[in-house]
Amino acid sequence: MTTTDATEPPRASKPEQPTNDGKKKPSYRLKPKKKPDYMRNWVYEATDENKHHVVLSNISKSKYVDLSKDQLIMKGCQGYRLCLATHGAHEGTWYYEVELLAPHKPAMTPKETAWRIGWADHELPGEVYDANVGYSSHSFGLRSVDGALVHKGVRAAYGRGFGEGDVIGCLIHLPPTDIEIPADEEQVYAPNLNSSFKEKGERPAAPPDTFEDVPRDLVTEDGARMEFFINGEALGKAPLQPHSARYYPALSAYDFGRCKVMFQREAMRFTEGLPEGWKAINELHSIRAAHEAALAEKERLEKEAQEAKEKEEATLKEEGVGEAEDGEGQGKRARET
């Protein structure tokens, strides 16, 4: 074996990577900004074709949830996925319906498709959008497997099971409340954007077959409450505790489950026997439209007032300069004489 004096050229050294002084590597994950006003965010919630009524939100949902073109049909994917409506109710009696449809793909697990339907408040954290309605303390869900009412991940015996082909009615009554949402945190569109709440719910400590009944004795005529229906059959009233500031229709589907919402009164099938004075969820749109118009008018008036103030200040400044120039001229002529 022969050797030579030739040596390999030195390898180019890698440029030194800038250090971060021991600090945690910066995250490049986009962080949601605080929402400005109502009108500028509507485009993110619904397409131009759907912005004239209440629909399922393009923002307040799991990224694995697909919506139909009209944003009224939700398609799940594998595990539980959650989606909210674009509008939430603050006070009054509100109602919507959900039709449970056949899966849009064959099931990937031995378990059957399942749903949890109900309500979520304005503080529902985005961290639980890949969970079911009722998983956290900020939502209440009716469980399709056994009709239990779920809150904070804990089930309470309430109704009966349901499945594909059934229509679930969801009613909520919210009495006037002094609960207020700060102006810079008002969640009318996408409830998760400003929330810093990190809770992911609590799992039930008791076996599934030992959960307690819904405390129906806590329901009062003037208190916050919910009521669910299966094909028009009332399952009874349940207390809404704790009572928050705003509630949104909330849906979750397991595996490849699908469901279709009916937010407009004329699309609903089982409205007989509902309490007097109830309103369809879609009527929230006109309420918010009026609020948007009021905000726009307020913004216009404030802008006009600011422009008038600036114009007045500019005029006074010009007049002051003119008077000063006149005074200097008079003084100069006096000195010359």
Computed CA radius of gyration, to the nearest angstrom: 30 Å
Number of domain modules: 1
CATH C-level name: Mainly Beta
Proportion of beta-strand residues? 15-25%
- Major sheet size, sense and barrel closure: 8 strands, mixed
Element string (H = helix, E = strand): HEEEEEEEEEEEEEEEH
Sequence-ordered SSE layout with sheet pairings:
Layout: H1 42-45, E1 56-61, E2 66-67, E3 73-75, E4 81-85, E5 92-101, E6 115-121, E7 139-143, E8 149-151, E9 154-156, E10 167-174, E11 225-230, E12 233-239, E13 247-253, E14 258-262, E15 279-280, H2 284-336
Parallel strand pairs: 5-15
Antiparallel strand pairs: 1-4, 2-3, 3-14, 4-13, 5-10, 5-14, 6-7, 6-13, 7-8, 8-9, 10-11, 11-12
